[in-house]
Each structure stands twice: as C-alpha cells, then as structure tokens.
Amino acid sequence: MSERRPRRAAQAVARHAARCRLHTLALRAIPLGLVLGGLATAPAAFAATPAADPGAAAASTTADAAKAYDIPAGPLGTALSNFAVQAGVSVQLDPHLVDGLNTRGLRGNYTVHGGFSALLAGSNLEIAQSTPGVWFVRPRSAQSAAADDASTLPAVTVAGQTDNAYGPTDGLVAKWSSTATKTGTPIVETPQSISVVTRDQMNQQNAQTLNAAVRYEAGVTPETRGSVATRYDMLNVRGFSADTYWNGLKQIGNGMYSTPQVDPYLMDRIEVLRGPTSVLYGQAQAGGLLNQESKLPTVTSTHELGVEFGNYRHQQLQADFSGPIAGDQHYLYRFTAIARQEDGQVESTRNERIAVAPSFTWRPDDKTSLTVYALYQRDPASTSYGSVPSVGTAIYDPLGTIARNFYDGEESFERFSRTQEALGLKFEHRLNDTWQVRSNARYYHISQDYRSVYGSGLEADGYTLDRASIASYEQLNSFAIDNQVEGNFSTGPVDHTVLAGFDYQHFGTNYATGYGSAPSINVFDPVYGADIDMPALTKTHATSNQYGIYAQDQLRYKKVLMTLGVRQDWANTTTRDVTDNGTPQWQNNHAFTWRGGLTYLFDNGVAPYFSYSESFAPQSGTDINGKAFDPERGHQYELGIKFQPKRYNALFTAAIFDLTRKNLLTTDLANPNYQTEAGEARSRGLELEAKLSLTKSLDVSASYTYLNTVYTKDNSGLQGKHLAAIPSNQASLWAYYTIHGGPLAGLSLGGGGRYTGATYSTDNSFEVRSFFLVDASLRYDLGYAIPRMKGAELYVNAQNLLNKTYVASCYYGNWCAYGYGRQVFAGMNYRW
C-alpha cells in the first residue's frame, strides 16, 4: 500500500482541517461510510502527516473524561465516522488505509483516544491527534509496535494482516464470515460451526480441487469417489451430502450429470458451514454448504503470473491481475485465468481445463458499489467416472490385487466435455447509518456431453467384470437472485442487526440419456478395443422454481448474543418425457424452517454457544397412492465453544451435535415395487479445530472429528447400520514455517498429515481400511537472494508424499474407488 509522507508543520494541519470538509463531497472514491456525520477526510498526502507531538497529544486525551459510546460492528471507515460524530471531533485519514477492513465495534465508556484505539485494534493502524478536536489515522509506526510488543508478550501480530468477511484474509486465521449469517459477523459470535479456508492456506497446500482445499477441515469427508471423479466435487459434511455455493448463490445442477464446478484458483476463500442451512438459503442438504468466494477487484494493484509442472504430465499456467482502471478508484477490475492439462491416475484418461474469470467494480460514491463478474470454463476432458470392484481392492482376492490405475471403460467410447458460462452481479447501497440494501444475482449455463463404459459387477470367478454403457447430452440454464435489507440499531440496551430478504432460484434443463450393454473385461489382464453401440436415448425436459422469504435478528445485550431466524419457502418442479410426449409430472412443496442460537462472550475471548437449525429438500416421485413425497427434513442441535485469544492470532472451535434426516425414501413393505417416506438417518459427533499464526513465521491448522452415523429407520435392511464411506474418526495437522532472517531467509517449509479411519460398505458387510497420508511443501522467495527477482517464488508441493495405495471408499453396493497416488507439483510464481 503506497503512502505519501511529506513533512508539514502542525500549523498547516490546522489550516487545512476546515478546508478538508469542503473537499469531502469531491472524494468520490472513498470507501463506504467514510463521509458521514462529522468525518473530515483529508487528501492522502495530508492525512498521513505525522502529528507535531504525538506523545503530547496522546497524553492530553488521558485527561478527557470517558463517556458512553455505542458503535456497531461493520466497516471500519463507517465505525470511525460514527465514533467521531458521537465524540464531537473530526477524524482524517487516507481512505485507502481502511478500504475493506472491518471492526467489532464497541459499547461502553471510553476516552476519545481509547475509543479510536479500540476500533482500530488488530488493523495495523493507529490514531494520533494533530490539534485539539482533530485526529488522524496512520499506519502503525515501528516505535508503537515495539512498545506494544514489550508490553504484550508474545508479540505475534502479523504486520499488514487484513481480515474481511467478504474477501481475502492474510494468513490461515480468518475471524469473520459472511456465509453463516449473511451479515458479515465475527466467527466467534456465530452460533453454528463454520470454518474458512483462506487463499494463503490453498496456496500453501497447492489445492487444485475443492476436495483438496477442505482436506484439513473438521467434519468434512472429502473425495468420497477417490481420485477418479475429479469432474465433480463429491464430499460429505457431518456424514451427509452438502451443497456448493459460489458468491453466496447455490450452484444449481439438477440435470442428470450436469453439475457445476468452478476451479479453486479463481477463489479468495472457501467457507464451510456445518449443519442445516435452510433458514437463510432455502432447500438444502442437511450436511451443510461450502461457499466459494471469488477473487474480485481490489483497490491495491496486484499482478501474478505462474507456471507449474508435475507428474502425470501435469502442466499449468495461471494469471491474476487486479487494481484501479487508469488509476481511477471509481473503477476497479480483476482478471483471473488458469489453464491445466494432465493425465489421469486411471489409465487412458486425461484432465483438461481452461477457465477465465473477469470482473469489474464501479463505486460511484462512498455508499454504493456494483460488481459484475463472469466465468467461462471449458473442460474438454475429465479423467474417469468409473470404479473398481470391492473384491481385489478392499476385500482380499487370492487371484491378486487390482491395479490402482485400472480402467473399467473404453477409450474409444469415453467422452466428457463440459462448458460452463456464468454472469453475475453484486450490488450494495448504504441508505444511511442504519440501513443498507444488497442484491446478488447470477445466470449460469452448462452444456455437457458424457459417454462412458463402466463396471456393473464382478462375476463369481473373481476376475470377469461385467460392464454397461451410458450416454447423456445435457443443456442446463439456471438463475438465482437474493435481495436483502440489513439494519443496525438499538432498542434500549439491546443492539440489533436485522436482516430480511427474498430469494428466487430457477433452472431449466433438457437432457437425452440412455443406457446400454458392453462386453465384460478381465480386471487383471484387460483387453480394450471392443465396439460399443450407442444406447437409445430418452429426451426429458425439466424446470424448477423456488421462492423464499426470510428474516433474521442478531440481538446483543451486553455479553449475551441471540440469533433468531425464520423462513418460508415455496418450490415446484415440472418434468416431462419429451420422447414419448408424456404427461408433465408436477411436484409442489412448501416448508417453514427456523434457527435459534445463544452465545455468551467472555472478556477473555471464550464464547460458548447453543443452537438449533432446520433444513428441507424436495423429493421427486409419488407413493403407491399417487401422493407426491413430502420434502426431506433435517434438524440439528449443536453445543459448542469458540475461543479467540486476545494475545495472539488464533481461533479454536469445538462442537458436539445431533443431526437427523427424516422422510428418507425407503421400500414400501406392503408394496415392494414402491417407496415410502419412512426412512431416517442420524449423525452425532464431535469436532475440534484450531487455526493459529503463532508468530509471523509459523502457521498451524489442526482438526479432529468423531462421527457416529447410522440409519435409525429403514425398510430395506439398513436400519441400525452405519452410512457407507463415512469414517468414525478423522484427524489432520498442517504446519507451515517461513524463515525471515539468516542465510536461509525466504525459505518456507510446510508439512501435514491426514488420517481417515475405517469406513463401511453400503450393507456393512465389510470394512474399508483406514489410511494415513503425508503432504509436504517447499517454497523459496528468490528476492532474498537476488534483489532484482523480488516477487518471484519457486515451490514444490507433494500430496500423498509416501505414495500410499489405499481405497478411498466403497460408496454404493460393491463399487469402490482408489485414492490419489503421489502428486508432485513444481512451479514458479511472479508477483508485482
């Protein structure tokens, strides 16, 4: 962040202070909330002017009598403005210093200096006084930092660290989230379990899929289809399926196989919200959701180019550029792109991708922002969607072990080609100090061509694999919009953050799908090249709409926080067999859901909480009487504790929960050819997670998960059995250390381990063995050795460093999937 620090006398500061008030309306590029009430904003050159005698100025404030203040959490610029109004003083600053920063607010008795300092806590900024009644914000000086370090040990605040609920976070420790409440709330104040995977963590671990990005998060079981299904983000949260969101809107994929997937390189953060989420998001899976937040335009100019190579003939290029357009901070841009090609771990398969994500932000004034973003992602190929039999992999076979790269398909028939295009917008406008409105909308298109030969069952001889074929051609269009109004006000001693919204989701899809036969194959000595007939295709058209209204109130009384939310949804789906010109089948559902939570904030950063939340998900089909199935319902009780230390940068979370899914479809015992809504499944467990930046050199992430997932009601023989592919125990540890001094300065070393306990097959007839995997990272900043190479970085990452062969899961019947073998990536990034 650039700074201009000309030397001026304190008298010049006083002369210009009044004139700066007249300039306020001209400073159109100042961030939201900096030009409110009595805020006097100076030009950059003036705002950064040091006080004539900061020490004396600070001393003078100590004599000021403390008075009561009430400043809500939110954007730092707005909070500083509100405090200045209540204190009857003026505050001056370079607006770029607070752009994108938030504060927890304050309530209580403070002096002027103490109040400003409390609002700026953790921002790497400080307050100083120029003349009586005139204060200014500046970057925290080295002298102040040293004094703070001497009085508060250990000193572990990372210089320049930023944390933003709606954007990037420096380091591994994110303390704000927008996903859990849609209001931008500190994680410690959120009465539901949530984790944030930051951009820095993804870079350290070189995560190239969504599954890889969340491998170290508590409660998440990634890669439930092992290494083969890279075309889909297949994972579970708390033992159940979870939805994927992008920039706060659901990734709608309700065709046969046309499911959205956006490359993680395009993201600034990934937020994992555990448990039912319907009160804010409508129809949803009970496990939770993963919200991926895009890299969007920034005020500070950034540029990155990178190249990467690896085993499996991996090759990758990436680029990321952002900043003001022609130096005008009314207009910001970002352009992010990645191109990748590599062989799949399964023989005869390949991954190919090119993704481009441009975005543009217009900020006409300090109260308004409009961001438009787009995506074009082309996946001409995406490994295999096949499997391996359980015998010879998870179960001992005297004939031998099936190779990890075994391919159950036919290369001449295999095809997966997907094109995704999206256009979205994010709009926000602050009406006044109390109210603001937001709108978030996106159009999404998927075009997909899929053909495959797959294994359908192993013969009794132990080596002959029966096979079948499938073909599907799909077009899917979806639209989603979420309109919100947020208010921050008080009623007596109670503070409120109120949210109300209306959202709408629509999708329409046309798909032609067919199934056929294919010759069998020997799993130990496969011979390929068989002629595969194209299956006969059935054409289907389907549309769906969901309307929802919701309201939420986050109440604060002293140290007690209560979160209450309610929602009503209406959903309908129409499906028609176009081939036979069939009669449309209608499905109409409506559901009321609610959430409640209670949190107590201790002064030392400990925050115990309790919450209840609900979900619903429509189900297609009818029972024997022609009655449409009721939606699946989920409800969860969660008791937890969060700890955000005051003396070092860390966040610790612990939660126990009881999560139940009801109305699951199962066999109708009286009519076995039909289904009924008599099924039920339950997940109970414990999650522990810690993210720490112990010093400016060391980052640590650790987690442990215990899950007990069972079918509590079922008519097909699963009652009392464990859910397939869900381990009872998971644990992970990641550490990353950067050397800043000495002959090895610029070198970073990272390492981690991931343990996944034993899992069950669908009918619990056998177990899949546990496994432990090791990851490692080595990076070097060339600028330390060669100053002219400042910004250039070399790196090597290894995932499953020891190249362990393991079965990731057996997820359906006797179908299983091997996990990733060793992946090694080496590359260079250049940033300026």
TrEMBL record:
Database matches in InterPro entries: Beta-barrel_TonB, Beta-barrel_TonB_sf, Plug_dom, Plug_dom_sf, Secretin/TonB_short_N, TonB-dep_rcpt-like, TonB_sidphr_rcpt
Species per Swiss-Prot/TrEMBL record: Paraburkholderia tropica
Mode of membrane association: Multi-pass membrane protein
Pfam families attached to this UniProt entry: Plug (PF07715), TonB_dep_Rec_b-barrel (PF00593)
Claim: Lyase is one of the keywords in the record: no
Name of the protein in question: Iron complex outermembrane receptor protein
Family: Belongs to the TonB-dependent receptor family.
Localization, UniProt: Cell outer membrane
Entries under Gene3D superfamilies matching the protein: 3.55.50.30, TonB-dependent receptor, beta-barrel domain, TonB-dependent receptor, plug domain
Residue ranges of every copy of the Secretin/TonB short N-terminal domain listed in the record: 89-140
Main location: membrane
